[in-house]
Give the backbone structure.
Amino acid sequence: MVAGGVPVRAARKNAPPREDVLVAAMATIAERGLEGLTMAGLGREVGMSSGHLLYYFRSKDELLLQTLEWSEAELGGERRALLARRGPVSERLQAYVDLYVPTRARDPHWTLWLEVWNRSQNAGPQERDRQAAIEGAWHRDLVALLAEGISRGEFRPVDAERVATRVRALLDGFSIQLAVGLPTLDRPAILAHVREFLIETLSPPH
């Protein structure tokens, strides 16, 4: 079999580590946005032809999904570390929110997420399952955090699963507005809205 006019065996030998390609893809999105990410341009960054990239990733959709999975693995480690901290659960919940919400308009991680979401309309079941796995990790961590707060008496006894679903829907709605650059709310205002909602929803009755 030949990839891009070069024998596959040679392509494998000369290819950079997979993670190098994903790092380069994420850096390109951060610097030039999704419109600046092309298979040919990425190939030049890592010393591969676009044909080689297509051999390894099959399509740009797969490249984007793998880049998102890599980025989420990095964020997942950061999320687990902050959730393992000592101290009030409310502080760790706020840290979770801070990590979830984009840092700015055109935040590269959220830009990538939105593009993968958009392309998921034509994705197959395996790709959808991989996206669901990413969503599920954020959801499970939030449910566990809420359950811990309830067990410690920091939060009122709510249904952690239902509240987590609503909190993530709120975070997604605000995050999309910020990521696409709508001139409605800035990040501090968004964090303030979410904080107010969490207080109203979780504060124990006096």
